[in-house]
Amino acid sequence: xxxxxxxxxxxxxxxxxxxxxxxxxxxxxxxxxxxxxxxxxxxxxxxxxxxxxxxxxxxxxxxxxxxxxxxxxxxxxxxxxxxxxxxxxxxxxxxxxxxxxxxxxxxxxxxxxxxxxxxxxxxxxxxxxxxxxxxxxxxxxxxxxxxxxxxxxxxxxxxxxxxxxxxxxx
Length: 170
Description:
The protein is an alpha/beta fold and 170 residues long. Helix content is 29%, strand content 26%. It has helices spanning 9-16, 58-69, 71-76, 89-99, 112-116, 158-165; strands at 28-30, 36-38, 46-51, 79-85, 105-107, 120-125, 128-133, 136-140, 146-151. The longest helix is centred in the middle third of the chain and has 12 residues, at 58-69.
């Protein structure tokens, strides 16, 4: 039997991430104000959980502001939004205040929740390889199962893409 070729990074990433129909990995993390936020608190409601690399960086700002811009339409359709990064509360507060973000930003400093969602892995920037956040988004249904999973997200227009997939404002 011939040895199999190693899986591409995308294949590994997809295999590690929960897919549509899978139970969403549970978590409790502190928000920007230090209050614990649990996925269990959202049972019975739909929630978009998105993972982003760093507060106040160009791509992350584009993505966060995109979700903020459509937040009224999402929440009007019963969909909540949660952003998760490895940044600390102080960074989240500054980011929230600077861009007037109206949804919780959670701190996953040990990246365990990132790992549970397959949102932690090898990245490459300017020819340098390192471990970090793999920008991704998960829509969790009222039943606690993944409705949609977006991997390798492009920040520009992503919030609109999520709204369309969830049939919000359509």
